[in-house]
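Could you join me in thinking about how sequence relates to backbone shape in a protein? We need material for that, and I hope you will provide a protein of your own picking. Label the sequence line and the structure token line clearly, so we can match residues to local backbone shapes. Would you write everything just below, so we can both look at the same thing?
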Amino acid sequence: MTALSANFARVREGVQPVTALVGGFGVAAATHIYVGSLVAINNAGNLVPASADPTLFVIGVSEEDVNNTGAAGALTVDEIRRGSFLFANSASTGLIVDADIGRPCFVVDDSTVSRVSSDGARPVAGIVRRVDADSGLVVVEVGLHTRSALEGVTDYLYAAGADLSATGQYLFVKLNGSSQVVLADAAGEAVLGVLQNAPASGAVGIVRRRGPSRVVAGATLADGALLATTVTTARAKAAVAGTVSGSNVVGSHVAGMALGDGTSGANMMMDVHPGGVVPTTLA
């Protein structure tokens, strides 16, 4: 199955799901939400069809058809259901099987789930409850779990100490000494994490401290490479192994590991996990 292009009678299983009625979820600009669509909140706080975007947070299944052709929030979805629903299964390495019951599964599109996250590029859809032997569809419990519990994600919220709205998203940031985040500006320095949104000065920035994240590559990078920040541009580079120079250790603070290949200037996936200096000899 592919992403929805019309309303779909999504089958739910088990007891009546919880109905989330919170006064309306503002729909993103130029976005069509169909009945039966797996839906998520984006970094701007707007509702969108779930997709392979690691910044999204899945909240449930839409019970309404809303086509917002205007600005973000001009129209709302007022009824979203949480609980266990049937979704299309992936194929090949993404095929969900009985051994995956009780594990998280991941969003391919607003109607399809997978057992793999595609190197962290897909958000969690929910928990696998059953694989239907006859139809091959997957029963997934959605909307009842926190992103951090499912993905091992830690996000910090800090005010931006500069205007990061045009240049800042998916770059390394650090604290400026006034409990604000600014772009990293020294090669290999210790960073707080990767900025997930694009805040103006004084607005709240979402910083991924641990877990999968997009990051802008500053060079050609291979999956599995240990990553550090570049000088001035706050992009990702290969961490430099530590060496002793006099009484100093010279090298990079590790910010995490590449989950896929990277091309200079393009977004890539990484696992953010701050570490120490790279050793020159493994022991």
